[in-house]
Amino acid sequence: MNMISRRRFLTLAGASAALAVNSTILRAQSATPASVIVVGGGFAGATVAKYLRLWGGNSVTVTLVDTNLAHVSCILSNLVLNGSYKLANITFDYTALGQKYGVKFVQGRVEGIGVAGNRRSVTLANGQTLYGDRIVLAPGIDFDPIPGLDPNKIPHAWVAGPQTTLLQQQIAAMPAGGTFVMTIPPAPYRCPPGPYERACLVADYLKRNKPGSKVVVLDANPSIVAEPHTFTTAFTQTYAGLLSYRPGVSIVSVDSNARSVQTNQGLFAANVLNVIPPHRAGRIVANAGLIPPGSRWASVNPLSYESTLMPGVHVIGDSQGTGQPKSGHIANAEAKVCADAILRAFAGEQPDPAPMTNSACYSPITATTASWLTAVFAYDAGSGTMKVVPDSFGEAATPTKDNFEDMFDWARNLFADTFA
Ligand SMILES: Cc1cc2nc3c(=O)[nH]c(=O)nc-3n(C[C@H](O)[C@H](O)[C@H](O)COP(=O)(O)OP(=O)(O)OC[C@H]3O[C@@H](n4cnc5c(N)ncnc54)[C@H](O)[C@@H]3O)c2cc1C
């Protein structure tokens, strides 16, 4: 594992902003603007909507569709579980995208997409149909069903919102000496360090508020997926005697009333059970037939994020299957590559042949310290894939208070670049 300095990390974290500056080409204004429909207003969708208008000006109209009037960020949402943050702090509506960039917002659930001649269409649950020259799908993730699992009783809290509130309430009501059991799905899943971060924050909260309690982490993966040094140290030293970690655990079924999970390693009963099911691309991506057989993610060209199965339809963020990590930071970077490629396509040009993206995740380890993980990816023309840039991959040497403070600056920048 290469360690990189904080200064270098902050330089890398600014790479997507640099991309924005380099790519700020206000396109020639045409008499008939091209049109793009964006489905999903999270980190990927809100960013592509904003940057299409920022870089494309009046040459393009952009309609953003989301089920909800505002997006609740998963980033920082684990801090809601220990009561140190409120969902209101991480909820973003689409007003700024409309007022500052002219993005049209439509609230509704998209149920299908179609092709009509040169145009594409999306159909909403209320029957409304919207037409565009291109469609960008950014619906995040969907979960595999698990026998017996009722998410209204056993929250995953892996899509922030009411699920986060429910899990926070269950943890707050847990008796001293109780047991918190959580499961981690097989990789790839949303935010590689996120589940381990959650285990640490819940352990920290229980240590301070519910003496004698235990945290049991049941990981479907053979070992810790991200920041192994940081989390091994946290599990075996910071939370020694409180937290136990088991790799290679697959779920058979859940008893949502008894709050227990049956696994290949036996039955685990809990006072609070947090099951995070295996992930796949958002349902609309599967419904549209954009996932190849045997895969869980959309097949796309990483130069443009255009589907390899349906021309004119792009997939970005957690739903895409380029092998890049599923993080909000890289979703924001992918969105800019996609926006640039779409505007070039409207101008009759090829996409940038050498795009770069970067990812960063900060992980609180206690209520006052955090670590971080980062990597930069570059297009490799030989393989046609995004590959990690040598020496760009690194994790914090140790969790610190400085990292904890930097985490909020980093998040504020990402939130502003996406929603403001
Ligand atoms: C606890 C936790 C901590 C995390 N921490 C970090 C971190 O530190 N750094 C980091 O970079 N990432 C982090 N992540 C990961 C990050 O949140 C995701 O990778 C990111 O949200 C993916 O963005 P997205 O736009 O693809 O999907 P989302 O952000 O999930 O957005 C999808 C949007 O699409 C909408 N939608 C879905 N289906 C439809 C439909 N059919 N019609 C209309 N709208 C629809 C949804 O309402 C939603 O608003 C974390 C995740 C979790 C769970």
From TrEMBL:
Domain Flavocytochrome c sulphide dehydrogenase flavin-binding: 353-419
GO MF annotation terms: flavin adenine dinucleotide binding; oxidoreductase activity
Signal peptide: 1-28
Keyword tags: FAD, Flavoprotein, Signal
FAD/NAD(P)-binding domain sequence ranges: 35-153
InterPro entries hit by this protein: FAD/NAD-bd_sf, FAD/NAD-binding_dom, FAD/NAD-linked_Rdtase_dimer_sf, FCSD_central, FlavoCytC_S_DH_flav-bd, SQRD, TAT_signal
Chain ranges of the Sulfide dehydrogenase [flavocytochrome c] flavoprotein chain central domain: 164-277
Pfam families assigned: FCSD-flav_bind (PF09242), FCSD_central (PF21706), Pyr_redox_2 (PF07992)
Stored PANTHER family: FAD-DEPENDENT PYRIDINE NUCLEOTIDE-DISULPHIDE OXIDOREDUCTASE, PTHR43755
Name this protein carries in UniProt: Sulfide dehydrogenase flavoprotein chain
Species whose genome carries this gene: Candidatus Competibacter denitrificans Run_A_D11
